[in-house]
Automatic annotation (TrEMBL), chain A:
SUPFAM superfamilies: MetI-like (SSF161098). PANTHER family: MOLYBDENUM TRANSPORT SYSTEM PERMEASE PROTEIN MODB (PTHR30183), THIAMINE TRANSPORT SYSTEM PERMEASE PROTEIN THIP (PTHR30183:SF9). Its main location: membrane. This is Thiamine/thiamine pyrophosphate ABC transporter permease ThiP. It comes from Arenibacterium halophilum. Keywords: Cell membrane, Membrane, Transmembrane, Transmembrane helix, Transport. The chain crosses the membrane at residues 12-34, 54-72, 84-109, 188-210, 236-258, 279-304, 324-348, 360-381, 387-409, 446-468, 488-506. Residues 50-254, 322-509 form the ABC transmembrane type-1 domain. It is found in: Cell membrane. It is a multi-pass membrane protein.
From TrEMBL, chain B:
InterPro entries: SBP (IPR006059), ThiB (IPR005967), ThiB-like (IPR005948). It is found in: Periplasm. Keywords: Periplasm, Signal, Transport. The keyword Magnesium does not apply. CDD domains: PBP2_TbpA (cd13545). Belongs to the bacterial solute-binding protein 1 family. This is Thiamine-binding periplasmic protein. SUPFAM superfamilies: Periplasmic binding protein-like II. Coiled coil: none annotated. Residues 1-17 form the signal peptide. It comes from the Bacteria.
From TrEMBL, chain C:
Keywords: ATP-binding, Cell inner membrane, Cell membrane, Membrane, Nucleotide-binding, Translocase, Transport. This is ATP-binding cassette domain-containing protein. GO terms for molecular function: ATP binding. It comes from the Bacteria.
Amino acid sequence: MAWRTQPVISPRSGVVAAIAIAALMAAALGAVLWRAEGGRGLGPADWSALRFTVVQAAVSALVSVALAVPVARALARRQFMGRGLLITLLGAPFILPVIVAVIGLLAVFGRNGWISTALGWAGFEPVHIYGFHGVVLAHVFFNLPLATRLVLQGWADIPAERFLLAAQVNADARAIRRLLEFPMLRQVLPGALAVIFAVCLTSFAVALMLGGGPRATTIELAIYQAFRFDFDLGRAALLALVQIALTLGAALMALRLGRGDGFGAGLDRPVRRWDANGLGLRALDAGVITLAAAFLLLPMGAIVANGLAGLSALPNSMFRAAGVSLGVALASAAVLLLLALPMAIAAATGRAATVETAGLLGLAVSSLVLGTGLFILIHPIASPAAFAWPVTALVNALMALPFALRILIPPAREVVRTQGRLAQSLAMPGLSFLRLVLLPRLRRQIGFAAGLGAALSMGDLGVIALFADADRATLPLQIYRLMGAYQMQAAAGGALLLLVLSLALFRTFDWLGARHADA
Amino acid sequence: MKYLAFAAGIFCATGLAAETPELTVYTYDSFVTEWGPGPAVKAAFEETCGCTLNFVAAGDGAALLARLRLEGARTEADVVLGLDTNLTAAARETGLFAPTEIEADYDLPVAWDDDTFIPYDWGYFAFVHAADMPAPQDFLELARSDLKIVIQDPRSSTPGLGLLMWVKAAYGDDAAQVWTDLADNIVTVTKGWSEAYGLFLDGEADMVLSYTTSPAYHIIAEDDTTKDAASFDEGHYVQIEVAGRLAASDQPELAEQFLNFMVSDAFQSVIPTTNWMYPAVTPAQGLPKGFDALVEPREALLIPEDQAQATRDTALAEWLGALSR
Amino acid sequence: MLTLDAITIENGGYAVQADLTIAPGQRVAVIGPSGAGKSTLLGGIAGFLPVPHGRILWRDAEITASTPGQRPVAMLFQDGNLFPHLTLAQNVGLGLRPDLRLSPEQRAQVDAALTRVGLSGLGARKPAALSGGQQSRAALARVLVQSRDILLLDEPFAALGPALKADMLDLVAEVCADTGATLLMVSHDPTDARRICSHAVLVADGQAHPPVETATLLNDPPPALRAYLGQDGLP
């Protein structure tokens, strides 16, 4: 008989989840295409939008990841007071609604921002942030935290024993780079690049606002135009397909590049490092951490400063919206884990390509097109408003899925690789393996993924705008609505509330995961 | 027994529904916030109609129309409130709207004769700036100056489209050249009005595209007289916001009643200080104090509905061409 | 009786062939040069490596196609014999019920096994808090409660000092005596083999030879083994 290695736990449910996601996306796109009436194909303007989109996304991803490596390394090899809090705060830009973050960013880098003001005192021209470099700056601001966390996770996943071993052979910082860090980076970076590339591909408001004009037209804006300016659903769906092809192409390339050996199993002990005690390296790391903190936290500070005055002006609707957002965020985190865990298991037991591809779809599909598709599907059956929350929770979970998978797959693979054999020799059933080995071993990453998912869902405007009626608004939607009614101050207060709630959610999940994980 | 209980439930449900009919009104986001007209309008109408008024907010005017087109005749909307004169042609073309009999003594800068849509408020697009700053007299002076402006993208924003039509109405075939000259004044282009106005308030630009009525908000709500709208010699483009009722509505009488209510004092007196636009019918007590301080454009520009669609596409191409260089 | 009926075990690029039987309850050392395929032989018997040709039988029942957990085999690896996040008691308990829903009797059995290997009272500790010797003992406690018919040791004590290793081997012998298990033990050290194994299987050049008495093999090693053992192997 044909002899096959049986995986210690079945990849079936993960593959089913992946197929279900792909089917949902296909149904949504199909619905949009089905409702399309004639329309024209892609024109020259669409192709130049495509070019701009790819170039800005690629540059943004490269810069984000290149900067993330020194920051993550500095954070990985330094212990200091408030390190955990700093890491949480550094994650904040990623989970903020675009408009809130951009206003914070402009408070620092804008024509009237702190830097320009300081330059003005010194008799210089203000910095000109609007243009291609502004788009990249904003995308780095949004994605540096994500890149840093992904790379930092890579460092954390190198077992402490490897560092002990390295210290044993008296490896210096350079030798550690070669022995441990480069191989780890080779595994981690392609995935991080692909994810950030995908995030930036679907960017729209940031690119437009900081790009300085229609030169900075992205595919997502072209979709927007097709949808609401020309009501050309066919073109919207076509552009969405182009976006999917681009994202998946990049992702598959990255996955291919990212293949490599893991680091083997190790008993968990806190990492102590002996290789980076030199004064020069300490100063370098301190400098890197300070710069990154300043870059990411100053705009946060501006949001806080702007928002404090608005807090007292917050209307009740804002608190109701905050409650809605919290509920949606928790539901979204739950859906996220229900999808991501089986998919991570499937990837760990050899179905990586299927799972990672399906996982990226959530990012690759324009939320406008996805939302519209779901709207078309739901509308004949029920009132879309009744589905506003579930659909938002689901779509937000899908958007967070690629991040959750990047967080969960490497350790899941490691656990299956190192402990699957023992479990098999014990005839451990798949569910027991899940309950006794996989879940406890992945606690830290599960907490991180759930926290990220919940926080992202908090801040995402997503598809709620298409579905919600007056009473079902989420916090970001309510902020937008207040801004539209001249209530800039109340909106700023709402943004601060959102910032605090998102970080608190993230921190709570992260902490829950880390608390019971073995040190 | 079960069947009886079920039947009784159905009976009660329909009985209740018959007692208080529901009117569903689709509108844009800012209309339904507690600072918008929504709450006051709902309270006032429900007082007289013996019904429940439900607002469903869907983005802005263009998003409203897109949503209607998606829903088609199956839409739950009885009334759509918040389309503007740039959208009425496309809205009419869908065939989803029912004609209305309502007529009123409109105070609009242009003559109004429409059998489907009724206007409820209007405003002039204008560049808002700090009051202590000398403002340009027209687009050409603006283009020659070093002033920095923030505008909205016509593809994603109603005011953005309004500006496009404004320049086109004022300059016709020279519009492309005007845009080319304006290019170096434009700091950036935003997705919507909120972002642009936020940027302006944060000092990112000297002027922002908004409405002549915007300073009224600052004067009345914030007691702040530091904002002004620039009066341009070319005239100002008019935005008239309209409502219409849907042919497929299951509450046609109630919908018509609501449209009638919209041109009444109860509705119109709410508009100036909640939607910050001119009411379509000046209420009995006149305009609130603060509106008298606003600039009065010497000419109102409006491209007629039947030309709007074609003009829009040409103007967009010119705009993209001029600003993409 | 463990029967390896003309089997070929594949491990990546190379293969090991075996055609031999081992009597129940026998303690057998697996000896041979490095890279000859000792671990491959054990991996094949345990079910971790494919056996495309031949049959493996235990007590006349074929187990060639069984999954590792279905086989009457307990195995200790060079490392990774304990789950680092579970307590010792949980790790041992896995040998009774892999889903860890233990009855009070089973808990008592776990405690007894820990006491038997000299870890009384340490059930709540996690592996990282133990010495290497204690970790080995805990793994043996699990083997004890598993009470499988066949015990495979792939050098689990290689990292221990001579005295500690001797203790462990004695403990293994006791465990085998307690459970009546058949033992196959990879060893690099002839003294280990002499200490507890009556018989030895020589693995050389991709071929596992039928067991012979340990003393016979070591006293007059064939050329391949002689070169590997050097002078130390001789009496």
